[in-house]
Amino acid sequence: MRYKTVAIVLIAFFTVLFMIDHVSDLGPADPIEDQSYSQTRSLMDTTITISVVGNNETHALEVIDNAFEKMYYVDEIMNNYDNDSEIAVLNKESAVYDADQELIYVINRSKYYSEVSGGAFDISIQPILSLWASKYSPGGTYLDPTPEEINETLELVNHSAILVEGNNIILEEDMAITLGGVAKGYAVDLAIDSMMNDGITSGFVNAGGDGRYIGTKPDGSMWRVGLQNPEKSEDAVTIMDIQDMAVATSGNYERYFSDAAKVSHIADPRTGYSSQNLISATVITDTAMDADALATAVFVLGENDGMEMIEELEGVECLLITPDKNIVRSSGFSGYEIKE
């Protein structure tokens, strides 16, 4: 019996030695390589893709969920078509008291864009947009508004009449605002901030062509962003290398195909008519909100005034496609383009 016990001990001993030797042959565990994890959802009247770079799928999906929640939150507050949103209440009641801080920030920032663009960007343009919509909706005349209607409605377009006092926002009677030119960009920025707070250093948020990109792709290269050729949707006018920057485009690509397509979704707050100065304007800058708003402003201003504004702003570049299909770049835009 004693020998049997010794034999069992010796077998166990050599088994442990074998396991130790076997494990040592394997060496240290190989690290899990980074990869991209992405989700695409429909939100804010567009398609939004959020992608994060990491090596833990569970964490990556949690990060993406958190980022989307930020975007849902912006949409709940700033969606004109949701009667319960704060902006809808503001437009109906001409005032919101104890307003959400996000809404206050976006309105104040929007007034800055109005100042730097000389009024080419103005969130109080909603009455003009509503006037045009009423003409080209079922039951409408399907004719342009008369000059008298335009001029009368333009009296309600005045960003300086938007009053922000503490947590209260007040409009003059019959005024209304739209954040269509900034809310999407702001939502992208909040989503990126959420990702970074969750420990992500590389990834992107793309909302219908308006995107912000941080860090690099899993292979260490910059994010590549193509600007669609309005003449051939499968081609790109240019391809950009983007890292820790945002890109946004405003445009009326229908003008490429038909001179009759004169009603753009972007109206000039100074005239009340659809902007016809450019086919598209693409802006690169630090934040998606800035890129979104400035692209709209440049589109309205046109080639000369728009480029002058961009050149005066630090850290902002743009590419324009003119009505005669020429491509015009700001002084530093080519620094982002891939040289083939």
Automatic annotation (TrEMBL):
Enzyme group, top EC level?
transferase
Q: Record's InterPro entries?
A: ApbE, ApbE-like_sf
Protein's name according to its UniProt entry: FAD:protein FMN transferase
Cofactor dependence: Mg(2+)
Which reaction does this enzyme catalyse, per its entry? Answer: L-threonyl-[protein] + FAD = FMN-L-threonyl-[protein] + AMP + H(+)
Naturally occurring in which organism (per UniProt): Methanolobus profundi
Source domain of life is: Archaea
Glycoprotein as a keyword?
Answer: no
The alphabetized UniProt keywords are: FAD, Flavoprotein, Lipoprotein, Magnesium, Metal-binding, Transferase
The molecular function terms in GO held by this entry are:
metal ion binding; transferase activity
- Known EC number(s)? 2.7.1.180
